[in-house]
Amino acid sequence: MFHGFQFVKMSSRKSKSNNLIHAEYLSQVQRILRERFCHQSPHSNLFGVQVQYKHLIELLKRTAIHGESNSVLIIGPRGSGKTMLINHALKELMEVEEVSENVLQVHLNGLLQINDKIALKEITRQLNLENVVGDKVFGSFAENLSFLLEALKRGDRSSSCPVIFILDEFDLFAHHKNQTLLYNLFDISQSAQTPLAVIGLTCRLDILELLEKRVKSRFSHRQIHLMNSFGFPQYLKIFKEQLSLPAEFPDKIFTEKWNENVQCLTEDRSVREVLQKHFNVSKNLRSLHMLLMLALNRVTTSHPFVTAADLMEANQLCSMDSKANIVHGLSVLEICLIIAMKHLNDIYEEEPFNFQMVYNEFQKFVQRKAHSVYNFEKPVVMKAFEHLQQLELIRPMERTSVNTQREYQLMKLLLDNTQIMNALQKYPNCPTDVRQWATSSLSWL
Amino acid sequence: MAYYPTRLKTRQTYSWVGKPLLDHELRYHTYKEMSVKIEGGLTEIHIQVGQFVLIEGDDDENPYVAKLVELFEDDSLPHSKKRARVQWFIRFCEVPVSKRHLLGRKPAAQEIFWYDYPACNSNISAETIIDHVQVVALGPDEVIPVDLKNEQTLFVKLSWNEKTFRPLSPELFAEFDQPQEGSPRCQKPVGAKTKGLGSPTWTTAEHVIKRIESRHSNSKSRRTPSHPVTPKAKKKLELSSFPRTPSTRISQQNSGALLDSPGRSKRKVAFSEITSPTKRSQPDGLHTSSPALKAPQKTGEIQSSCAKEDKKASPDCHRILRTRVPALKTTEISEERTLTPLRGGRKSSAVPSMVLKPENIKKRETEEPEAQDETTSTPHRIRRKNSLLTMNRIRQQLRFLGNSKSDQEDDEFLPAAEISDSGSEEEETSTPPLARRTSSRVSKNLCSSVKSSFQTPSQTPQKTPKPSTPRHATPQIRSRNLAAQEPASMLEEARLRLHVSAVPESLPCREQEFQNIYNFVESKLLDRSGGCMYMSGVPGTGKTATVREVVRCLQQAAQANHVPPFQYIEVNGMKLTEPHQVYVQILQKLTGQKATANHAAELLAKRFLTRRSSPETTVLLVDELDLLWTQKQDVMYNLFDWPTHREARLVVLTIANTMDLPERIMMNRVSSRLGLTRMSFQPYTHSQLQQILVCRLKHVKAFEDDAIQLVARKVAALSGDARRCLDICRRATEICEFSCQKPDSPGLVTVAHLLQAVDEMFSSSYITAIKNSSVLEQSFLRAILAEFRRSGLEEATFQQVYSQHVALCRMEGLPYPTMSETMAVCSHLGSCRLLLVEPSRNDLLLRVRLNVSQDDVLYALKD
Questions:
Q1: If DSSP codes are grouped into helix, strand and coil, which group holds residue B618?
Q2: Of A404, B117, B390, B635, which residue is least crowded by CB atoms under 10 Å?
Q3: Which cellular compartments is it found in (chain A) (predicted)?
Q4: A223 with B761: Cβ contact below 8 A
């Protein structure tokens, strides 16, 4: 840490002389790194999935070169690099000379192609089949289906161009009516027709249970699992690699300095603590990217290198409790209402409450003990109560109907006791009696 | 009545008077006047267009009366090249007896009626004209003069349209004075009139044909591409039922009819084919007698006419031409070559095409016409075989008739028509495209290609690489530029054989089922009756494969004439968007027609419930039957009802997964029609699976014997799904290949490899997923377990779990988890389905459940 600070001082002294050049470099650094964090470029390296990668690439090559039909599911939690894996594999596949001109790709996403009708049109469009004019696909759903099936049926292993289907959010396709699309894709991949590679990407571990028995039988049951199976040392390595500048960066000296700084960071104890904490919460690489992005945003000309403090700050931002933040912005009256609700919860064991009960509790407090809190009129308290509802800190049990009076509508508090107490501690200028009241409903006795 | 000399008594010589007028568009000669010389006598009668004439018929006393509309020469006919178009009149005695009362009065002796019946042929041989006659039109109020002095004068007062007598319309009335040039609307039934003309062999059936054809020519508006199927089918039928008639008429009719019928591209084909390669000196065959056409054409214009014809005709013609080369032996390939450049790059958009084909093929055709010969003619080989017989018969006929040149043409024409009719399906798939059309056209093509699924007509031309073909016209995935590599090693070979798509030489372990189905279908074929059969079994037990094998064997048997020929259709419930679409599919595959679901149902019902002339049995395989279920069950009802009709000759084989499907989802009347011919495919036992594997790997030694036995037992214990078995083995070969150090000699697949493959495919990934999840996720799972244990329920709200979680973290010295973090962890676990969670809008109150057993979680969290 000490070393890092010294380094920063040194470089900031330097920066006074050639401030402009630094600014240019920094904007370039930020552009490169942000691109790396936000886009899943297939140029970055893969971590810890070499076995899976090999399996996938061999499979794709067999489809592309030998015309062997295959189907495979890539399963892994969100942010485990499924799309990255397939993109890498496709990129490598397309670099093979005998393949590049020989393979058609169809990319579908369950969130976009929400039913088979749309999916069929999209497939036809991407395959650029005959009933596509411009970007429009003609014909009814039934026509499109029979057209596509016919098109795929007429091919055979040795002469037809293999088609690689990539179905993102595969589980959503399983919810389509009758699973027609999946049945047909898998059926073709299991019969002597146009060679297909059907690759499904999903985060659901129970995906096979979603498939209908006929569809399931036709699926080859190949599964590639991506599990984020790396440990913390590797996580550190990823961190370093993600933050380092590439060798192609124009200014060699700056690159050297930057990378040296990154190396220092990985050795820094507080940085390691931050990373360990982050790693404990989630192994997802996207959350690491988020952390690095927040830290990177603090880099300016006067502060040209990422420091441990930046990372700590970023980590705090990441792990911040959003509801506690809302509570910090509430008025004293609203805080009082929340405390009243907390007491009601304690007394009645999580039973729902209504406005009248909360108001009574608040009245008790104001009348007996409070010196600092003004005894607001009921409509004002009601307004505050409604504001809490708008902030979704409280939630009605049933839907609001015209018949029920608002005072008596049953509500539930969406804040935990610990949350309330933590928020109160940080609440600026909290009156002492309110704070005391919060600790115990009987404090005024 | 007056006596008119007819041909029976004296000979007459007919000759044109005046110069022929050449109609450039239609290429035949029209004349204004004709002279008739009666042999023996010196009288010469001049008959001009616009005059009223008497035409010889079967009644010498009352010859037919008509107005001459046009005189022209048609060289396409053997005997009577001189043709005339007339507007018929009808005598009262010619009106059917049953209709005579409609006149309501006694007709005058010399009264005739304007014959207003469009279905009647107006095209006659000019040599049947006897004399001219005087016809006077009378207004509705005028009285027919009873003056009998001039018997030659006839009177017209009313028109007759086979239904009612009507007064002459004023336009008609006015027309009587000036010569008519427009196309006539009124004609006379040829059947009775033309008897005893040129050919003595006319039968009534022929007239039927003629009438139908002339109807075609009359209803000549452009039809949609899907339409011509019906008329063609009809024609084919009739032509084949009278193949022996040297019918000059038919061809004449055809040529007339087809020039403006939508299918003309194909017919023209026939013409150009005849003219161009044989290089006749007359432009015969191009002369047609269609009512709309008139143009004289100088002889010796073949070249240009060929070219013209060529321009009009679609490339089909060349296709057909080539197809017929071996059959006719008169055509020469060198001639074709001279034709090909003409065709190059020409796109005949004017002619509606039946079919589309990849443009690339067409392009290639233009580039290398020689190569085209072999490639294009191959798909026709099969169809040619069929039509060869008919053609030979017709040619025999020809020789027998001692034909003139034109005679021969006619007969050549016929087989061509026959070919294009009988082979229209195949042809459609293989003819090059004329223009890229809309989707309706495309799907038309689609359906036709379905039928020819046993042939792969366009395979051959596609194998060769083409430079750049951006678009593909048929429903087809583009072909690859480089040929697929063949398996190099033993393992690759094994993998190829183990792929589910690989079709084994025989289906082991299903001999009994095969025999049962075969016997069932064969008996129905032999009995010429229909029936239903229901097959059930879990997925991957070889139901569809067995039925396909049966059909393949039966088709071979049909070729060897052991069983009657039949048509095989396959539909799959899963490949339909909606149950009623099954009608559309069946109709398309049966006839190539395209219709909406309702219309298709009607057409099919009509087809199956009425007696057909072609008594071919249809074998229909309905796969995934359960998906054809509808509320009213009308689809299933129809499918099972049709076979019960004797005329239908329909054998329905149905496949579904559940054994009791008929009882479970079908109404009584539906399941009753399905009958009790049931068969259930049991899941394969381990020995059967082993046999299947051994059979597939017959000549490939890639697996240890133990390994095969292991996988067979594993799969038999799990599901008995043969597909699974094959997939596992395939994966095992891959593992074997990866794990091997030396890539060139990988060795055999061992038990270890197979076990790994089985593990990969069947092991639950939940435990690994939990093991690899982050610390906070694991402690959240622990908190859930703790909460479950505390409450004794299998469900908890997020709030409860959160408090447990906080406590756990404190115990384990982890930093305090904030609510947001914990919520993120919870939803992350929910998205993997390790947990079942409610939607997150419930926030603290959302309920959480485990999707894995608690023991599994505990096991995974042990270390």
A1: strand
A2: A404
A3: Nucleus
A4: yes
